[in-house]
Amino acid sequence: MTTTPNVADAAAVHAHAMGAPAELDHCPLMPTYAPPQLTLVRGEGTRVWDRDGVSYLDFLTGLAVVSLGHAHPEVADAIAEQARTLVHTSNLFGNEIGWQVAETLDRLLGGGGQVFFTNSGAEANECALKLARKWGGHGKYVVVSAYNSFHGRTLATLHATGQPQKHEAFQPLPEGFRHVVYDDIAELERAIDPSCAAILLEMVQGEGGVNPISASYAQDVRRLCDERGLLLIIDEVQTGLARTGQWFAHQHFGIVPDVVTMAKALGNGMPIGACWARRDVASAFVPGDHGSTYGGQPLAASAALAVLRIMERDDLPGRAAKVGEYLHRELADLPRVCEVRGLGLLLAIELDPGIDAKAVQAQALAAGLITNAVTPSALRLAPPLTVSGEELDEALAILRSVLAAQTPSIDGEG
Ligand SMILES: Cc1ncc(COP(=O)(O)O)c(C=O)c1O
User: Fold this and answer.
1) Which residue CA neighbors atom 3 of ligand 1 most closely?
2) CA 206 to ligand 1: nearest atom
3) Is the pLDDT of residue 23 over 70?
4) Residue 7: how many CB atoms within 10 A of its CB?
């Protein structure tokens, strides 16, 4: 039987979802994540179900991945058909499906580029970093990125990630990374010297708290890259593929990057990422410079091809823009919300001082809504781009009742 929880059930839902303490003691997984609040076993569209049959509205979509909703029938059919036909061949052989995905991505990015397929966002960025070094040549290898950014967990992408507290335990990290304050063009200009090969930026800092870049900064960075002979690498792993109301977030600002990385939404949950680069930049690579056993294999590529076909047919960038505008407006009207920020359907609400986003996340979850406390004071919302009007209103009603029940902590009131 399917049930929807309410706030009063919170403790019971959590206890069930986490299982008995003995189960956690014998957890076979490395402790890189906090113990899960829920175990999900099924999804359909915007809804997911836990192992007790309790349903939730998923306004996080596996961290901005399942943009077409869970178990999308056309994507599922494409995967099932390909699974029965040819799952994997390695990149030693041609792959017609990967070729079509690459052609589509190149068209959506304005043409004139080439694609390398990966299995994740970090690997897409790793490819971009290696490409920048190869393109830069001897002595021109430094990549400048922003504080508060997030670019992945491999050693190089971790160093590109501008969060020094995440670096500490893993020193020494690969050399050649420099960080600047986001959205401060004077500081960026000062940080550039002849050792720099590229600037790496998100257009909305997703993990950093859903912080959109200003149009003037994005344009100034492009100009600076042209003047100083640097590559502009845009990390669209979280923002790419329709989420922000354009195919890629940089398209809001009228800039043309040299390299674009993406992952998350590309496979609607099937692990596939991509690094696109202008053809003359991509040509810095020669056979043997980079590779991936699985990257772009027929199974993952079949999901990506279906995703791109559906997104184009149903104009999902347009839908994300329109629905995002509605959600933005309604969120601004909720109690205890002092700011709404983001683009399209990648949004965050900043809560009044003294309101704990983690507590709000837990209470919303207990009431049947999945969100994410992206900072201690902000909640991130990234529903499927296919979310219905009724689902939006249901989620807003849950948030309204949870937020209305919050009282600021004494610390926050001061
Ligand atoms: C902007 C950005 N870049 C890179 C990554 C890393 O992607 P992955 O976890 O697939 O390696 C993420 C993940 O959240 C991201 O948001």
Assistant:
1) 151
2) 16
3) no
4) 16
Per residue in 39-95, pLDDT tens?
Answer: 999 999 999 999 999 999 999 999 999 999 999 999 999 999 999 999 999 999 999
Strand order from edge to edge, sheet including 273-278: 113-118, 273-278, 259-262, 231-235, 196-201, 142-146, 177-180
3-state SS, one letter per residue, for the chain? CCECCCHHHHHHHHHHHHCCHHHHHCCCCCCCCCCCCCCEEEEEECEEEECCCEEEEECCHHHHCCCCCECCHHHHHHHHHHHHHCCCCCCCCCCHHHHHHHHHHHHHCCCCEEEEEECCHHHHHHHHHHHHHHHHCCCCCEEEEEECCCCCCCHHHHHHCECHHHHHHHCCCCCCEEEECCCCHHHHHHHCCCCEEEEEECCEECCCCCEECCHHHHHHHHHHHHHHCCEEEEECCCCCCCCCCCCCHHHHCCCCCCEEEECHHHHECECCEEEEEEHHHHCCCCCCCCCCCCCCCHHHHHHHHHHHHHHHHCCHHHHHHHHHHHHHHHHHCCCCEEEEEEECCEEEEEECCCCCHHHHHHHHHHCCEECEEEECCEEEECCCCCCCHHHHHHHHHHHHHHHHCCCCCHHHHC
Distance 370 CA to ligand 1 centre (A): 20
Query: Any catalytic annotation for residue 106?
Result: no
d(CA 392, CA 227): 45
Q: Is 264 a catalytic residue?
A: yes
Q: Whose CA is nearest to atom 4 of ligand 1?
A: 151
- pLDDT tens, 87-121? 999 999 999 999 999 999 999 999 999 999 999 99
Ligand 1, CB within 6 Å, residue ranges = 63, 120-122, 125, 150-152, 202, 206-207, 235, 237-238, 263
Residue 153: both structure tokens together: 């967990």
96: Cα within 13 Å, side-chain hemisphere: 2
Q: How far is CA 248 from the centre of its chain?
A: 12
pTM comes to 0.94
Closest CA to 190 of 163, 228, 226: 228
Asked if 382 and 346 count as a contact pair (C-beta separation under 8 A), the reply is yes
Strand order in the sheet with 55-58: 40-44, 47-50, 55-58, 369-370
Q: Which of 50, 58, 183, 235 is catalytic?
A: 235
